[in-house]
What we know:
Layout: H1 10-20, H2 26-46, H3 54-66, E1 79-83, H4 91-97, E2 102-107, H5 110-122, E3 128-132, E4 144-150, H6 155-162, E5 166-176, H7 181-185, E6 191-199, E7 208-215
Helix pairs in contact: 1-3, 2-3, 2-4, 3-4
Amino acid sequence: MTVITAHPLADTLAAGLAELAIALTPEQQRSLLAYVDLLAKWNKTYSLTAIREPERMVPHHLLDSLAPLPHLAGQPGCRVLDVGSGFGTPGIPLAIARPDWQLFLLDSNHKKTTFLRQAIVDLRLPNVTVLTERVESYRPEAGFQIITSRAFADLGEFVKLTRHLLAPGGEWAALKGVYPYEEIAQLTVDIRVASVDHLAVPGLEAERHLVHLKTENAAA
């Protein structure tokens, strides 16, 4: 892993990426740290996240967003929808790590999407589209191969609100804390759990899981 030393949090980020076995270029690492700097700056005025210290943003926002990456099967050109993106997690870190994906960041909060639009300009992310809409009202021309969320809703509600947005053969990839036994048990019979990945996020003591869901008639 190449370590960039100009930023005070460069070593922390590089060590975390190495632990996750995610290889990013020095330029990608700089972009991730620039995102943290921008978030910390805006957070002073707009209170986008309860975590205010940049050194805590690296594990809680960058590494937590990137930990699912090795478990996501998106091919080049994959359309990924981040529902309830908030201040851009996991969407912006994923967009930086996978410039060959098309990321769509959806949130109904105008304050947050204003930040997201500024972020994609400052970070020069041509593969990101920001949407200020309610997910149930969003009607794009094409569906998404991956629909993800981080702390958006329970699994049943997540599926219900986004089902019309899933492309044929696509999957939901929901970021969760502890293993969501009850939420899984309450899923409707036409939704199946393809797999659940346990994620070990460097610098975080809390549990993390990635739940992959598909429609019952989708290919395995």
